[in-house]
Structure formats: structure tokens, C-alpha cells
Write a structure and sequence with these properties.
The chain is an alpha/beta fold. Helix content is 43%, strand content 20%. Helix 5 runs parallel beside helix 6, helix 9 packs parallel to helix 10 (211-227) and helix 10 packs parallel to helix 11. The site of iron/sulfur cluster (SF4) has 13 residues, from helix 13. Belongs to the IspG family. One of its GO terms (molecular function) is 4-hydroxy-3-methylbut-2-en-1-yl diphosphate synthase activity (ferredoxin). Residues 265-351 form the IspG C-terminal domain.
Length: 360
Amino acid sequence: MNEMIHRSKTRPVRVGNLTIGGSDELFIQSMTTTKTHDVEATVAEILRLEEAGCQIIRVACPDERAANSIGAIKERINIPLVVDIHFDYKLALIAIEQGADKIRINPGNIGRQEKVEAVVKAAKAKGIPIRIGVNAGSLEKHILKKYGYPTADGMVESALHHIKILEDLDFHDIIVSLKASDVNLAVEAYTKAAAAFDYPLHLGITESGTLFAGSIKSAAGLGTLLSAGIGNTLRVSLSADPVQEVKVARELLKIFGLSSNAATLISCPTCGRIEIDLISIANEVEEYISTIKAPLKVAVLGCAVNGPGEAREADIGIAGARGEGLLFMKGKTVRKVPEETMVEELKMEIDKLAEEYFEK
Ligand code: SF4
């Protein structure tokens, strides 16, 4: 099987107003950190995440209070809501009844067959998918016994075990994740899963750590998979504000040309030729373009010597020079701009280009 095309070769599965799988499109997910029964706090966090570019949100559902809050949360948000349930089929039934757009539950952990059937029947009736979440840290006993310790083969076997339970009930709206905090293990498990079945894959490196180290760890693992054409949704898991998870995920998708609604900053590393305070300008411009929903490439360069030519692929950019800067587009200088107004002029030009993009 050609893994390069797994992403688009997956089965399309509807989640709210989105279709996961069956195309090259990849969606960014995150998870709330609030108590789900605290509807006010949960909605406020989800709205912040939406603003940052989150496209699907998951909430924990540890008890009935949380399950009974799903409807109230859903009413006030604009992106599909996934409800994360461990074992308790009653919570799954409530969440589905309340309008969950997807539930994350492992059918093999629900218990008696009637309970599994009840959940599957309810999900079918509402037309919502089930995500099977395999985690290297909580593999079934019989699999651990067979392999001795968590392995990629064991993780895929666990996924297939849960998949079979759903398929036997003629349920196919399935999404699968195979998370591990060990990058190599996660990459191997997802790669093997992509060869074993065509259900869409939700990518994640679990417990990856703090904002700095966790971003690098996630980028290494998720980047490897994305470049191999694997993955239909992803979550960057960080011990940080979930808004940061979304920002890191967006950057990753941009790198692989998988984001069509975000601008990218190109900035030079600076060197002895530098003529302007590039680091603060780069940060200011990065912040500014974080809300631009057009796929523009914006460059900020420290000097004009190699400047515009170094960023030929940029749609728009500035290169510093003593007292004034050069504004350039696609490697060609457009005009000189005074240093004091350089950043403001760049912002104006970015807005113009974004407008033109949406008028097209
Ligand atoms: Fe150095 Fe100029 Fe290149 Fe920046 S753009 S790295 S300042 S030569």
C-alpha cells in the first residue's frame, strides 16, 4: 500500500459539519481543561480555542453532571463537540442524546454486549461516529501478555479488536487514534495502522510535555506522519493553555502545506549585517498574521543586501535598511518605506492582499 496517499484514501466520516477522511484536508483538535459541568468556563475556553483556529473540540465526560451539560455547551459553540467517555455506557447514551457530534469510547471496554449494542444503536440513530482511542499506556491485558510490553503491533491489534466489535454491529463511522508518549512507538503504530485499515486516523503524541519540549516532541512525531501522508485530524497535547496546542498544530500544518486558512511568517535568523530590531518586529508581525485567514507568506528580513532575494517565495515582505526599509513582493522591491512606519505599512499591505485573496 502506498502510504503517501493514506490520508485521502480513508473512509469519509461526518463529524458535525465536517467530513474527516476521504480527502487531503486535516482538522485541528484540542481538548478543554475546564470541568465540563462548568458550562460557562467550558464555553469560554472553547470560544477562545475557536478564535485560535481549533476546528473540533473534545471534552472529558467523567460523570452524569458532565454528560448532562453537553447540550448546553453545544448550543453556544460553533465547532463539532466530541465527548470523551471511559467505560460507562450510560454516560455515552446521555452524551449522544444531548447532541454530541462524536464520542470517544473503546467498545471493548464497555462491558456486556447489550451495553455495546445500546451505544452503537444510539450513535447510528443520530448519525455520529465513534472514535476508538488506543493508548500504549492502557493496552488490554491479553495484548500485553502476548507482546510482553506495549508495541506498535500490539496497539494495531488492539485497534482491530475494537474495530471488529463495531463492524460486527454493522457500524463503520469509525475514527481511530493510537497514541503513545514515545515518539518512535507512536509513529510506528500509526504507520502500521495506515497499512492495516482505511478508517481515518486522529494523530497525537500523548503526554508530550510542556510548551517548549512538548511542541518539539509533537513536531517530530506528527511531522514524520504528516510528511508520510498519514493523518486526518490531529491534536498537539501540551501541559499548557490549549490555545497553544492549536497554535502549534497550525504551524505544523502550514509547514506541510496542509493549511489553507493561515498566513506564514518567514523571518531571517539575523546576522552581523542586521539593520533593524528584527526580533521584536518578527514577533509583532507573527502576532498580527495569526488572525489572517488567507494562506499568505510574509517575510521579515534583517537587511536588504540579500533580503528580498532570500525570501523570493514570500507574497509580501520587508527588508531592513538604515533609516528605511524595502517593501517587496515575490522577490521584487515595490518601494522604500521609512523605518518608523515600516511595520504599519507592511500590515496595511498584508490586509490588502488578504482582501484580494477572498475576493478571488
Ligand atoms: Fe543576515 Fe540580512 Fe540574511 Fe538577515 S537577511 S540573515 S540580516 S544577511
